[in-house]
Amino acid sequence: MAEEVTAPRRGGGTGAQVVAALAFVGVVVAAMWALNGAFKGQAAAAQKKPATCTRLTEVLPARYTSGARLCSVLNRPDLPAMLGTPEDHVQTADGSGNWITLAGGDKIAAPEAHVETQTYSVKLSVDYDHLTVSQMADLFGKDAEPRTVLGHPAVLYSDHTITFSLGGDGGTRPGGIARHLVVAKSAKDGGGSFEVVIWRQDDVPPDDTALLNVARMVLPTVPGWVAG
């Protein structure tokens, strides 16, 4: 709503008119500061709101968690604070639900969500295969780090992101480090898992504390998480 400013009534001597004019200027300046502050406050509030989740593709049956659902639990206003960058805000968010076809022809549901801030990218996915986390840790090699997250077996490992060239030969090159945390759906580690991945936009190695913060806050809200 526009600010209303009332000018002083005309009349009186020169001194009174000067004082009135100065008072009027002061009121106008104060009103402009108030409006400027209000606009800044509205802009700051808008920046702290999560981006709207974009649904890319959804082809999975209803018995699987959808990419849209994963996006809704990851796209939180407090996500930048979890990542240790509270001044950031979510810029983009999307989710998709597709199949992965294995070498033998079998298909596995692979829903995932991706949220991006100025500093970090975060991906959340659900793995519907029957491998336990301990079996997956063997596949990741000697650099995999066993962990426990909220009482669930977990494993932490690294790989490189891939940077796509939009010009020239349109090729790819290795990017920065991505940190992956795979967490069993239940404390019994009976097969199937969740994965949280983070990487930085500036290719600086990401903070493991940020990754663990996101996992501890977000995973209990994902369908299929078994507490305890």
Describe the protein in words:
With about 230 residues, this protein is α+β, with helices and mostly antiparallel strands. It has two domains: about 10-50; about 50-220, no CATH class. It is about 30% helix and about 35% strand. It is built from five helices and eight strands. It is globular and about 40 Å long.
Short description:
By secondary structure, the chain is α+β, with helices and mostly antiparallel strands. The chain is built from 5 helices and 8 strands; from the N terminus they run αβααβββαββββα. The protein has helices at about 15-50, 65-75, 80, 135-140, 210-220, and strands at about 55-60, 90-100, 105-115, 120-125, 145-150, 150-165, 170-185, 195-200.
Number of E strands: 8
Strand content is: 25-35%
Number of domains: 2
Question: Helicity, in percent?
Answer: 25-40%
Shape: globular
Order of helices and strands: HEHHEEEHEEEEH
- Helix/strand-derived category reads alpha+beta
User: What is the average per-residue confidence, as pLDDT, rounded to a whole number?
Assistant: 81
Radius of gyration: 26 Å
Note poorly predicted spans.
1-46
Helix run count: 5
* Sheet with most strands: 8 strands, mixed
Cα distance, first to last residue? 51 Å
Q: Please give the order of strands in the largest beta sheet.
A: 1-2-3-4-8-7-6-5
